[in-house]
Amino acid sequence: MQTAALIVATLTSFLLPFMGSSVNIALPEIQKDFSVDAVTLSWVATAFLLAAAVSLVPFGKLADIYGRKKVFFYGTLLYTLASLACGVAPSAAFLIVARIFQGAGSAMIFSTGIAILSSVYPPEQRGRVLGFNVAAVYTGLSCGPFFGGMLTAYLGWRSIFFLNLPLCLLIVYLIVTRLHSEWAEARGEAFDMVGALIYAGAVIALMLGFARLPGFAGLILTGAGLAGFGVFAVWEIRVRFPVFEVRLFTENRVFAFSCIAALINYSATYAVTFLLSLYLQYIQALSPQQAGAVLMVQPVLMAFCSPLAGRLSDRIEPRLLSSLGMALTAKGLALLSFVHDGTSIPFIFGCLVLVGIGFGLFSSPNMNAIMGSVERRYYGIASGSVGTMRVLGQMLSMGIATMIFTRFIGHRQIVPSLYPDFIEAVSWALRTFSILCAVGIFFSLVRGRLRD
User: Fold this and answer.
1) CA gap 50, 210 in Å, rounded
2) Closest by alpha carbon to 99, among 86, 113, 90?
3) What are 92-128's pLDDT values in tens digits?
4) Is 396 exposed, middle or buried (0-12, 13-18, 19+ CB in 10 A)?
5) Dist. CA 269–CA 399, nearest whole Å
6) Angle, in degrees to the nearest 10, between helices 318-336 and 272-282
7) What confidence tens digit (pLDDT) does each residue in 197-222 have?
């Protein structure tokens, strides 16, 4: 059963990032097909992220109460049906609604997949299997743009969603026939619906606010989101069976600082590909295929290093490996911040090697620390927290990049006359991300020891 659990968790960990990065490549074709504006088009991607962020923690708790295999199974079914709906969508509005359900299904999968692996494998093997899981995520991210572009070019953007169906059905079959146990250490506890609604409102306000910064509406929404998280924390401390055990943050230093380190790392790295993709095409005059080939080195190295780092974290204190990874990432980003119109491609390639190795060294040990620092009854919550840190970090990263672009370029198209301002914006963004990573090293180092 251990092998079956690893296979289904790894397949889904590959499939979901592959879908996300493939859809981003297909957005221009979707816009052309439905004749929608840029704001509506952005919701094709944002709706998925928003639904996933809202759902991760509540579904993690539901999995702890009613069974992780059950939530994983229904999540895979929902994701499969939503993918089919996306593929046959007759309008942009229909596609966006289908993407919301797809995001909710992905949250059910991500909030339970890691928890199931942590339940099946003993602590001394957890880092190794989580390393494989993380490697699958990065493999999906690296394959998505290339194969998604090919599918869009030769079979149309709908084929990306249809490609999900046979793989999803295989996963459903394996769950039914190979996973015979159930894991529900919090069975019998009541579900905190009020807390889940407060959490959902806070996440929605925060993510919508970041998308509108630095405007006034963005500031109001971001402030409301942060205030909502404060209300959520107070409510969760008082309720008998909270949807999220806030005391994990207040009383479990390893868990709290590991989650903060994950949030910082995703915030500092997610927008790097976005920035360099524009830089390589605008300033270096590379084609999209050439730019993609240069950028692919980072996720490939992440996928290669993650299993090795995960295996090492079973024997070496995870905070040491994670801190080394964060330091390498900070160094790579700091070097990248010196890019200009004459920067060589080998230099950029070398910096991305540092960032890729750094992230690969950080992620698996950090996840091992998060899952290893909590009791089995909190595995679903901890797994959901990992996903939430990732999604919030991704939104924060794009929010930082957008704010800096607004400051240097404004609402103008990037044309040759603005290339100096564009390079300055990219440099400041990368500099900011490097500083974030430097702060992350502190949280990673002082989190405390996972093992006595």
Assistant:
1) 12
2) 86
3) 999 999 999 999 999 898 878 777 887 778 877 777 7
4) buried
5) 12
6) 30
7) 999 999 889 878 876 777 788 889 98
